[in-house]
Amino acid sequence: MIAGEYCVVAPHTFPGKMWVDESWEHVMTECVEKMSTPVLLIGLPGYPSLCQGVVQEALGLPLHIVAGLISKARCFIGLDSGLTHLAASYDIPIITLNPQGKFPPFLIEAQSPMRWTHLTPGIYGSQTISYESVLAIVKRAIQEGIPEGCPLCSEIPYVLIGKNDKRLFLCRCGLVFLSPSITRHGQATIDRSKEMISLPRHVSDLRAFQDWLNQQREQALEREGDADIRVHFEHWRLTGTDPDTFLSCGPEQEVWWTWDAVYQVLAKNGWHVMESRGQPASRGQGFLYSFTIRAISIGWEDNDPALQRPWGARLVWFRRSLCERWLCWESFERNNELEGLGWMLVNEGFERDGRDILRFVATLGLRGRTIGRVIRSELKALAAGFRNSSKTVAEVP
User: Where are the domains of the chain?
Assistant: First the structure.
């Protein structure tokens, strides 16, 4: 194979992270026959053969040979495996698939500016990734190399679907957006005569909205006062939502907001969220809740208000600092993951945050391990309190 002209595919890893063989065969066959890109299949021997006679196998090779083959490839397609992390060491596009949604993708992910991470529809494995979507992303990755950055936070987003020359992305900040965006001229207008501010629905208006937020905050500082804004928006629940739902909204919308994305855009531009209230949306509207958030331009360090926010299909209350530090993007929506996060925080020095999370998990369903961890975290807090009290008394002259 000629360097720079072939695609490396690594279709095997642990069973809980695998994609279906039939989909792999569709992708590899179309790469060879329709994209004129030879495919080199790498990995360990012993798995069932795929696309015999269509692709070339290079199984069981020494790691340094495998690394050399990957470094000379046109692109790499794989799963959450060591070979994908190895591919991230080179300046080639890597398309990594998370087809079973066993865990939040950002816990362990390949670190490369040329990473295209395709999540399963619904994020947590409710459906399988279609091979048509993967092919659309492979074509785009080969053409562009680096994916579009999030228009809100500039980070590399995750792919939800590629279809009809469109790509739907989800960023870890919580924003869902469509690319390529519709070309629009002019700037977003903010009507301050209304009690509530509505958020932009187009990518091209996001920059103007952030500029407006900065202007309002700076004007308040110049007059040595405080500014107060109320933002109204629709919260879209990403877990379990078919990506086609977003694509069917038509050209009038290419940005979809979540609670986390709204919090991020306000905090990023210097605003302090003080109140958050939500209410269920009417059935059939697509989004789950409508929210109103109040933010002020001048905050207080010791102020940590309780905010109502969505968590899965529920409305819950969390301290603002807890949301900001650990609970963005409903990333640990499943109880066992959230419990694991709380226990980890307890043991790594963030006792209060960890206890609050464990207490919340206990309200979601009584499990022996959860209750045990709640009790142990409380006993640890009591012991720390006694130690601190004794130390204070001992230091009194």
Answer: 7-147, 182-319, 334-388
Q: Are 17 and 79 in contact (CB under 8 A)?
A: yes
Contact criterion met (CB below 8 Å) for 230 and 197: yes
Sheet holding 228-235, edge to edge: 197-198, 228-235, 289-296, 272-280
Sequence-distant (≥ 6) Cβ neighbours of residue 260 within 8 angstroms: 173, 174, 328, 329, 330
Give the sign of the dihedral formed by CA 221, CA 304, CA 321, CA 323: negative
State CA 279 to chain mean position distance: 24
Q: How confident is the model over 168-216, as pLDDT tens digits?
A: 999 988 899 998 655 454 445 555 544 568 899 999 899 999 999 999 9
Class at the top of the CATH hierarchy for domain 7-147: alpha beta
Helix/strand/coil (H, E, C) string of 330-362? HCCCCHHHHHHHHHHHHHCCCHHHHHHHHHHHH
In terms of Cα–Cα distance, which of 36, 27, 30, 34 is closest to 9? 27
Q: How far apart are CA 304 and CA 307, in angstroms?
A: 9
**pTM of the prediction?**
0.86
**Using one digit for the tens of pLDDT, what is the confidence trace for 52-71?**
889 999 999 999 999 999 99
